[in-house]
Structures are given as structure tokens and as C-alpha cells.
Automatic annotation (TrEMBL):
Domain LTD intervals: 25-155
InterPro entries with a match to the protein in the record: Lamin_tail_dom, Lamin_tail_dom_sf
PROSITE patterns, sorted: LTD
Organism for this UniProt entry: Streptomyces sp. R21
Signal peptide: 1-30
Record keywords, A-Z: Signal
Listed name of the protein: Lamin tail domain-containing protein
SUPFAM superfamilies: Lamin A/C globular tail domain
Source domain of life: Bacteria
Amino acid sequence: MRQRFTTAGAVTATALTAALTVVLAVPAEATEYTSALKIRGIQYNAPGSDSNNCTTGNSKQEYLTIKNYSSSTTVNLKGYKVKDASASGNTFTFPSNHYLQPGDYVKLRGGHGTDSDANNVVYRQNCNFMWNNGGDTIYLYKSNGSHADTHKYTASANDSDGNGYITYHG
């Protein structure tokens, strides 16, 4: 059986292909990484007056929540890295085994404390603030160095209620 194609049909097919190409194009900053671990939220502005004094300060109130969104895979955080956008490179690398079961989360807090799988907390063992109150970029890297998740925020654009906390990935 012979099929006939008309010029109009060829033009329509070409136009449809071009339209799909445009619709499927995604800007680089909207890239969704394939990692099970993602940034769930950030308390970038600790409640109270900012003080990085290890005894009386509030840097423990600044934290980043990382969640395992996998439904079946446990992830070990050892070697994962969290970084901000500063030139000085505020960076934290998870130094030891900390396992996140599917659906579980961990809060990476400022200040000194005892890490606990049971309490879902890891301390940076540093009393300096990591996140800028006005805005910053949060980078989460896998232990092999590849991107797991990235979010850029500004207080005015992303924190509508002004409480210093922003939620990502629900």
C-alpha cells in the first residue's frame, strides 16, 4: 500500500515537532536532580538576635532539613556535602555514617552537640552562621561530588510569612 504525503501534512508534522521541542526545553536552573536526598527546608534566620557565641548564641536554631524521598532505599549521608554560595565557601561534609531510611529526615544544625540518628540531628560543630538572612544558595552534593539538590532563596521572595523558614519539596 502506498501512502501519500502532502506538503501541508509535512509542514504540520514539522511544526508539531518544533512545538514539542520548545515545550520540552527546560532552563538549566530548573533542573531536577535524580537524588533520593533533597533539601526539605531551611531555617535560614534563627529566631532572636543573631549571636554565634557558642554558649549563649542562637546558631543551633539555624538548620537545614534534608529528607530521603525514596520509597525503598536507605541512604548513608557519609561524604555528602552542604555548601552555600559564598566565596569563602561555607561548607559542611557529613563526616561519619548517618543513615536515612525511606521517608526519614535529618536536621543539620549549627553549634556544638551530639549527633543522633534517633533524634534526626547532626551538628556542624561550628557556632558560626552558615546561611545569610537576606538570601543565599543551598547546594547539596552526593558523596561522589555530583549534585543532589540546589535552591536559591531571598527572604523577600521566598519567606512570605517572615518566620525565617522556607519549605522545599513538601
